[in-house]
């Protein structure tokens, strides 16, 4: 009887071990498909409704040779250029509603940028690749803002916070950013994955950890205006993750707003969201050059 029980226990342990190994193998093999969700459709200007026909296409040249497209909603006599770096899903088309709300309420110009592998752009998605893309996009935005005597604001959505802050560590010294908005920002994908999957050796398996995010926040120019927006009900990037990022920010003028009922993708409909952005843009516009 004891031998039978031992045999059953050993077989059960073997099955569990094999199942665990299979799960780890699948997570390792398909991790980027579980981390990034670009949509298949390629957004085109011709497909946009009439209200968006003022939107124009721009192209960014990345250091590794890729040419990536984005959309620019240019406004006359615009004092601020906002460069939007999106999260890990969708593409620039899915941020048009947000851009429209900003353009309706302000005189800011808005640039919506897609990384490699998103929005019909060439290239394979990876942490290193997305950082290179953001370096190129921020450099493009800075050049255009300087030419038009505009202030430059980065709007970093979700994993875009990791992309943008990591990129700023690698920027040329002369590139100046006047303001940064982080929406649903995260401290690192490593911290997030470790909290969600405590039974998985995340440190060993995860390729795109985004561990430069906190360092990027710590090394920001202290004169940059910084605003963090986060939902208390965020089920994708919990509030603690956004708070940890905010606490690392070195900027003297920084503010954190938590929306009581806000989730990860619905902050735009939360009371006070647009007002907070409009107030922030006005503060950046008033800054001394």
Describe the protein's architecture and organization.
This protein has helices at 2-29, 31-35, 96-105, 127-147, 159-168, 189-196, 202-205, 213-218, 239-248, 273-286, and strands spanning 56-61, 67-73, 80-85, 109-113, 151-157, 179-183, 225-231, 253-259. The chain folds into two domains: 1-35; 38-286, Alpha/Beta hydrolase fold, catalytic domain (Rossmann fold, 3-Layer(aba) Sandwich), CATH 3.40.50.1820. It is an alpha/beta fold and 289 residues long. The mean pLDDT is 90. An eight-stranded mixed sheet has the order 1-2-4-3-5-6-7-8, with helices on both faces. The chain is globular and about 85 Å long. The chain is built from ten helices and eight strands. α4 crosses α5. The longest helix has 28 residues, at 2-29. α3 (96-105) links the parallel β3 and β4 (109-113).
